[in-house]
Every structure is written in structure tokens, then in C-alpha cells.
Design goal:
It contains six helices and no strands. With 129 residues, it is mostly helical. The protein has one domain: Homeodomain-like (Arc Repressor Mutant, subunit A, Orthogonal Bundle). Helix 3 crosses helix 5 and helix 4 packs across helix 5. It is flat, with a radius of gyration of 20 Å.
Length: 129
């Protein structure tokens, strides 16, 4: 699949290459990678596009096409969705770390304003993808 990131790949073709049904291939792929084949491919294409945005002076539409997206709009939608999803996960994890309920029988002391400001800045950390 890595060799074909910029091509249109059908799930049926991948499954037949592995001599599996589409549904069995999709289940096996997700079990071994933790992601659906489509999600895995989108993340690889997005990684390629990000690298090209940093390393080249090509236009966003050229980068979108070169990395396998249908057009600039498709790249933008996928990028926005992935960043929003990662931001929500980071915010949820941050909430769990800083806003957990007090143990039974104890009251939770209020955080000073400076600690609160520091916990907010954690959500602005650049995402690794």
C-alpha cells in the first residue's frame, strides 16, 4: 500500500491480492494496524502532503494531487478533520489529567489562576502527524 499512496486503490483489489474477502481483509487490517485501510491510507497521504508543504514551494493544489488527494478541497477537508480530531483527543486527555474528581471524603482545592493558564497552553502543542 505504501508504494501506491498516490494511486486510487480499491479495497477489493487489496483483498484479492491477499486472497481474502473484502470484509475479512478490512477486519484483519484493522486488527493488525488499529486503523481501517481507508484511514491508514488517508493518514499516509496527509503525511506526504505535510512534508511537501514544508519542503517544497509547490502550490497546495499541486501538493494535493501529488500526494493522492482528488483536489485541494479534499486535502483541506481531511487535514481539518484530522487536526480537529487530534485536538479533541488532546483536550479530553488534558481534562482527564487536570479535572478529575476529588477522592471520596476530600474536597478539591481550586487551582490558582496561573496553573489554569498553564493547562490551557498544553492544548496548543503542535500535533505529531
Amino acid at each position: 500500500m505504501r508504494d501506491c499512496e498516490d494511486e486510487q486503490i480499491s479495497l477489493a483489489k487489496l483483498a484479492s491480492e491477499c486472497r481474502l474477502s473484502r470484509s475479512h481483509f478490512a477486519r484483519a487490517f484493522k486488527k493488525s494496524t488499529g486503523q481501517s485501510p481507508h484511514r491508514w491510507l488517508l493518514e499516509r497521504r496527509l503525511g506526504t502532503a505535510k512534508q511537501m508543504l514544508v519542503d517544497t514551494k509547490s502550490s497546495i493544489s499541486d501538493i494535493a494531487f501529488a500526494s493522492g488527494f482528488a483536489d485541494q478541497s479534499h486535502l483541506t477537508r481531511v487535514f481539518s478533520k484530522m487536526v480537529a480530531r487530534a485536538s479533541r483527543r488532546l483536550a479530553a486527555r488534558n481534562d482527564q489529567l487536570t479535572c478529575c474528581p476529588a477522592p471520596r471524603g476530600q474536597t478539591r482545592r481550586k487551582k490558582p489562576q496561573s496553573e489554569h493558564a498553564a493547562s490551557i497552553s498544553i492544548a496548543v502543542v503542535p500535533l505529531p502527524f
